[in-house]
Write a structure and sequence with these properties.
2 copies of one chain form a homodimer. Chain A has 334 residues and is α/β, with parallel strands linked by helices. Chain A has 2 domains: 4-125 and 302-331, Medium-chain alcohol dehydrogenases, catalytic domain (Quinone Oxidoreductase, Chain A, domain 1), CATH 3.90.180.10; 129-277, NAD(P)-binding Rossmann-like Domain (Rossmann fold, 3-Layer(aba) Sandwich). Helices cover 25% and strands 25% of the residues of chain A. In chain A, strands 3, 4, 5, 6, 7, 14 and 15 form a 7-stranded mixed beta sheet that branches. In chain A, strand 11 (216-220), helix 6 (225-232) and strand 12 (235-243) form a beta-alpha-beta unit. Chain A is globular, with a radius of gyration of 20 Å. The two termini of chain A are 20 Å apart. Strand 13 of chain A pairs antiparallel with strand 13 of chain B.
């Protein structure tokens, strides 16, 4: 039996919460590299909240995935065949090979990664797209100054954890918001945040006030909903809110209504959405700095590694329920 | 009987909708100018939505008015006595003399105005704080480009009318949102907007979609609430939302919950509050340009002039119900 390419395709567009049955697993013949192509074997697949948006009928900013198409996604892959002089079999690359065990590429967008300096999976997390997202949003939109208070939601996640640690390196007071005591403990004890608020516990508004005695200068927005409302009520004049995501809304059929936007007027708030792929120019600088910080132990991270591509749909569904802890990756090949 | 100074003071902090009984009228002795002071006689008092915020216990960005204090406000005043070499009796100045018929000033913040070139009341409107607010928010935060679609709420108001006319001068498609058919007619026929939507009529979302076939690139926010939600759903990638005010929320005890903020992520929206008094450096340029446009008839405006300071509270209450048409001013003397 020749080896096949295992693929996970979009079976149906989710209505509200994404379900495992919105995906379908299929086998396809293994392609061969020709005419400048390389054949990539997927080592690790990254699972990220933005992928939920690609499953919708109306895509937000990038092309949506069509029914029957392989789901999109970042991977760490190994070059196993190459007809492209830029790549040799055995090279490890960062790619966008999607939810499949093999993929062809013409080399566009492939980036060789050094897995001796930084582990392979970190190139999908703290030294990959999530890390650059944290770096760009915090530093280029948030612009935190020493002594300011920075709040970040989804604080134990792939992006949030890096945001908070960079903010600490910049001399800020850093307060996380996360789901559950275990994640909050980790954020404070392992990542070194000054405080972390459990949004699942009672008294979010009061807890946030207690943790931010000088108000909030930067809020790195990953979740939306009630957390955003609580933050808006604590914002200082000229606060900045880089908007990376609003995961609370991604699966909602009736979204939370935000009531404290009026704070934007009196406090001259800046609330700004961004997508890191719009800013490819900053990637080399950001990745270099992140790799250094990770190498020096100044940025720590945690991962949930799910074994087996066939488990990706289940893990992805759990991502929106906070079942993962830190960066969620799927180990596809060994 | 010597002439007295009629003053309108804050009698109580409004709970929800502001009422006439939240104000009290009182008589005080007429002060005399000494030691560099000037005595100002109020010709016109400007009534503006931001004053509602100053009546609250917690002021948003400027000191709130204390119970028993004279309400704050911009005026066009005549110098009637002067011990300040910079001002002569007979000078007409723009001042912040508040809701009273006379006021003392040490000259700080007074600006002589030429009422031959532009009528006195226009210095409280299109060539005053509201005009500069429109100019700054639209041009410096909104950054409209030729051919883009600009939407402005409270389109027949002192700020909104100027926003839309500047946007037309910049070559944009301009759509207003206003309350009632008469205001919408005025916005299109007199001010030259391409379309205007009556937010009091049924079908706001559908009407906005029809009026913005290419989506929305700039939304100048004056009202908040359901209009903001409808606009968010029509925003193009990289749309800019200068946030001048949210009048729908100023008197609300239970504010509208905005549900479409998720658009900020995919569309990389910038939603930014501002207060024009933070940007005094741009006033001379803005006022010069606005005076020229008004002089040339390129910017038109309408006013509701209420006679008598004693009628200011009633007129102010009506401002939040849309009872005025265009800039609301009170004729105090003259």
């Amino acid at each position: 039996m020749p080896e096949m390419n295992t693929q996970i395709v979009l079976a149906s567009r989710p209505q509200g919460w994404v379900k495992e049955s919105d995906f379908r697993i299929q086998q396809a013949p293994l392609p061969a590299a020709s005419g400048g192509q390389v054949l990539l074997k997927t080592l690790y697949l990254s699972l990220d909240p933005y992928m939920r948006g690609r499953m919708n009928e109306v895509a937000s900013y990038a092309a949506n995935v069509q029914i029957g198409e392989v789901m999109v996604g970042e991977t760490i892959s190994e070059v196993v065949e190459s007809s492209n002089p830029g790549f040799q079999p055995g090279d490890t690359v960062s790619a966008r090979a999607g939810w499949q065990s093999y993929a062809l590429s013409d080399g566009t967008g492939l980036r060789k990664v050094d897995t001796r300096r930084v582990p392979a999976t970190a190139h999908l997390g703290a030294v990959g797209m999530p890390g650059v997202t944290a770096w760009y949003g915090l530093l280029k939109i948030g612009g935190p100054k020493e002594g300011e208070t920075v709040v970040v939601s989804a604080a134990s996640g792939a992006v949030g954890g890096v945001v908070g640690q960079i903010a600490k390196l910049k001399g800020c007071r850093v307060v996380g918001v996360a789901g559950g005591a275990a994640k909050c403990d980790y954020v404070v004890k392992e990542l070194g945040f000054d405080a972390c608020i459990d949004h699942r516990a009672e008294g979010l508004v009061k807890a946030l006030a207690a943790a931010t005695p000088k108000g909030i200068d930067v809020y790195f927005e990953n979740v939306g909903g009630a957390v955003l409302d609580a933050v808006l009520a604590r914002c200082n004049p000229f606060a900045r809110i880089p908007v990376c995501g609003m995961i609370a809304d991604y699966n909602a059929t009736d979204r939370y209504g935000v009531k404290n936007l009026i704070s934007a007027v009196g406090n001259r708030l800046k609330f700004q959405g961004f997508i890191v792929s719009d800013h490819m120019g900053i990637w080399p600088e950001a990745l270099g700095q992140l790799a250094q910080w990770v190498g020096e132990g100044k940025i720590k991270y945690r991962e949930t590694v799910v074994p087996g591509l066939e488990n990706a749909p289940n893990a992805f569904v759990g991502l929106f329920k906070g079942e993962n802890f830190g960066k969620l990756v799927v180990k596809v090949h060994g």
